[in-house]
Each structure stands twice: as C-alpha cells, then as structure tokens.
Design brief:
It contains 1 helix and 13 strands; from the N terminus they run ββββββββββββαβ. Strands 1, 2, 3, 4, 5, 6, 10, 11, 12 and 13 form a 10-stranded mixed sheet that branches. The longest helix has 11 residues.
C-alpha cells in the first residue's frame, strides 16, 4: 500500500493503546498552524471505555503545524505532509508516553533529572543513535544533537516514545514540555503552560499513558480507537 493510500481503509488500533489506561489527546484545528487543545481521558482497564477527566487545556504543536508520523503515513491523503527531520511539525499519530524529566529530581517513577552532556537527544540521521537519548561520549564528532539541559523549556517535561526512522528521516526528539509563550509553536514537540506540564507529569506517571496527536480533519481516521 502506498504511503499516501486513501484513509478509508479500516485500521488496527495502534499498539500504544493496548495497555494504556490514561490518554492525552492533542488536537489542532488546522494541520498547518501551531494552535491546539489538549484533553485527557481515563479508563479502569484497557478493555473499558474512555472517560473524560480534567480540564480542557490550551497547547501548541510544531511551528508549522502537524505532519503524519512514520508509522501512520498510510493514513495520509495526497496533499498532507509527512513528518521529516527539521520540518518543525509535530507527528500525527498515537504513541506511548514515557517518563517525566526536568531540571530537578523527582520521586516520580523513572523520572530523569537532566544533566549536561549526559542527556542529549540525537537529531542526526547519519548517527546510529538517531532519535535516542544518550551520553555525549558515545556519539561521533560533528553529530547534530539537542543538549537537553541547556534548553530552559525542558525544565519540566515528558518523553514521547516516537519511533525514529533514520532511513525515512522521519523526525526525532519528540517531547511534551513548557511553551515559550501561548500560541508560539515548537520545533516539533507539544508544549503547554508550565503548571499544566507539571500536572501532566504527575498524572501520566501514575499509570500507563498514551498520547494522540491529531489534526481535527484527520481524527475520524482513528475511529474506533479513540474516545
């Protein structure tokens, strides 16, 4: 099937939802703009129905909006963008939410207190470590990377387990983090007010959580999988 096959074909729900009992849904009204809204849902077991929880939150996605993540390209229509490294678009799709991170230590399970040169995210498709958080000592000279401890917006955040694909140059280093200001898009992450990020850190760390990043026109293509 082509990367841009028609989206009417039935889909299997993404594996990220299999064990999740908490769900973050980020919906942009326009695929080419950064404005978005974030809602949260819970369910008692993976077989139960999703129930809305918490308040509606303002969020932003990539500066240039959204593009289809590598694993979901088969749902893209011909005119819709596909996620590429450096395109300043967030990846449409459904992904596991990983551990929380930030500049300070935390008792949350698996929390990562960022350290300079110990936690860098590799953005270079030439590297075997593309899309991974590694120690700077393991990468080759000249490799492009994100020095996480030097970015003030990473003072509070959550990892998104977006699967990198170097052969497709499919994008890397996707997080939930603090926004620069309301309405200002990111390099490809999801961002919110810092208080909202901290609330999500606590909430998502308490149970298996997934995130759905969507454009409103594309949401029906996940029918049957999302609330």
């Amino acid at each position: 099937m082509s990367d841009r096959a028609e989206a009417q074909a039935p889909i299997q729900c993404p594996p990220a939802l299999t064990a999740a009992t908490r769900l973050i849904v980020v919906t942009a009204a326009d695929m080419n703009k950064p404005g978005a809204l974030l809602t949260t849902f819970e369910r008692a077991t993976p077989a139960a129905a999703w129930v809305p929880t918490g308040a509606l939150r303002e969020a932003v996605v990539g500066l240039n909006g959204l593009a289809w993540g590598v694993a979901f390209r088969h749902l893209a229509k011909p005119a819709e963008p596909l996620k590429q490294e450096g395109d300043k678009r967030s990846p449409i799709g459904i992904y596991p939410v990983g551990a929380s991170f930030g500049f300070e230590a935390s008792a949350r399970p698996g929390h990562v207190a960022l350290e300079k040169d110990r936690h860098i995210c590799v953005e270079d498709v030439r590297s075997p470590h593309y899309g991974r958080i590694v120690d700077r000592t393991v990468i080759a000279p000249g490799t492009k990377f994100d020095q996480m401890r030097d970015e003030p917006l990473y003072r509070s955040g959550l990892f998104v387990d977006y699967p990198p694909d170097a052969s497709a140059k499919g994008g890397s280093c996707i997080f939930i983090h603090v926004w620069r200001k309301p309405g200002q898009g990111t390099a490809g992450c999801v961002a919110l007010d810092e208080k909202d990020v901290v609330d999500l850190q606590d909430w998502a760390s308490a149970a298996p959580t997934a995130i759905a990043i969507l454009a409103k026109p594309a949401a029906p293509r996940f029918a049957g999988c999302l609330p």
